[in-house]
Hints:
This protein is an alpha+beta fold. The chain is 45% helix and 21% strand. It is built from 5 helices and 5 strands. Strand 1 (13-16) and strand 2 (20-32) form a beta hairpin. The longest helix is centred in the last third of the chain and has 21 residues, at 127-147. It starts with 12 loop residues before the first strand and ends with a helix.
Amino acid sequence: MSKKKLDFKPNEYVVYPAHGVGQVVSIEKQEVAGFELELFVISFEKDKMTLRVPTNKAIEIGMRGLSSPDVVSQAMKTLKGKAKVKRAMWSRRAQEYEQKINSGDLIAIAEVVRDLHRSDDQREQSYSERQLYEAALERLTREVSAVGGGDEVAAAKQIDDVLVSRAAAA
């Protein structure tokens, strides 16, 4: 019984749902409890963190390659949309936003950025709203940047321009 496994190579960028964009540093074998395990060693430069993920578990946990440029432009379209704020209690909404951010799905992450974005003249955000917004924005920026060749400043500006133009049109 062979499990399907992802085939990432060193230096390749990947998206790990709970942490965002990381880079495969190497693939190593380790013996754990008498079994030999093959592991992706993934570095998250910004967070100064290294993760070791068993290659046969990567699909299960939702690890994936970077989004295609098409998905990135889809995410940008999502940002342009009108914010959808449900009337549910904040704790419930916060949970949903958290799930979207940790899903690793770029479109879902863009929805969180869109829904929590505030222009300067709008009401103040609560601390937890801002935390979720910044987490989603950072994930979106890092992936847009990695897909576009690694310029995070340009990616941040591209996203900001979309959000500002959306606010101006409102």
